[in-house]
Specification:
Layout (H helix, E strand, L loop, with lengths): L1 E7 L8 E6 L5 E5 L4 H19 L8 E8 L20 H14 L9 E9 L12 E8 L6 H5 L7
Parallel strand pairs: 4-5
Antiparallel strand pairs: 1-6, 2-3, 4-6
């Protein structure tokens, strides 16, 4: 099964949290360091919930492969007529983290620990594969077959004694 979710919004990294004190229960109160994370996670959650409802998807609870292509705003200082790469902040791994958490909140999968393989990319609008025309993200989720072909496992396998 393959699921494609297109999210428009401003991709925001899941950054560090700052300690705000202790709750009466003794648990730490932590606040997200970036104010942009909550709106991004809401955008992802809404888009994912719409796809899930439209396809009548159950919560995925199996090994998954995920591909995310983030389209970031192109800086005004960047060349207009040639392709450049977004090699500055935000960190790609932190963008993935915030997006995975939002997909968990949307009920796409039981837990992001189900992701066994993840590829991600940063692009500017219209520049490269899966780049959107405005900031956002293209998310593709594929279920993984539970067994692989025996040919890939048998070469050089001398465990039978």
């Amino acid at each position: 099964m393959s699921i494609r979710i297109v999210v428009y919004g401003s991709p925001a990294p899941q950054g560090s949290k700052s300690f705000k004190g202790l709750a009466k229960s003794g648990r730490a109160i932590l606040a997200e360091s970036s104010k942009k994370v909550r709106p991004w996670r809401q955008d992802v959650k809404l888009a994912a919930e719409q796809v899930r409802a439209h396809l009548a998807l159950p919560v995925l609870d199996e090994p998954l492969q995920v591909r995310m292509t983030f389209t970031l705003p192109k800086p005004l200082s960047a060349p207009k007529r040639r392709r450049v790469f977004p090699s500055k902040l935000p960190d790609l791994s932190k963008l993935v983290r915030s997006t995975e958490d939002a997909l968990t909140d949307a009920g796409i999968w039981r837990d992001d620990a189900r992701v066994i393989e993840c590829t991600a990319a940063k692009r500017y609008p219209g520049e490269g594969a899966d780049a959107l025309d405005a900031p956002g993200c293209v998310i593709e989720i594929l279920t993984v077959a539970e067994h692989f072909s025996t040919t890939s496992n048998s070469a050089g396998d001398n465990t039978h004694g």
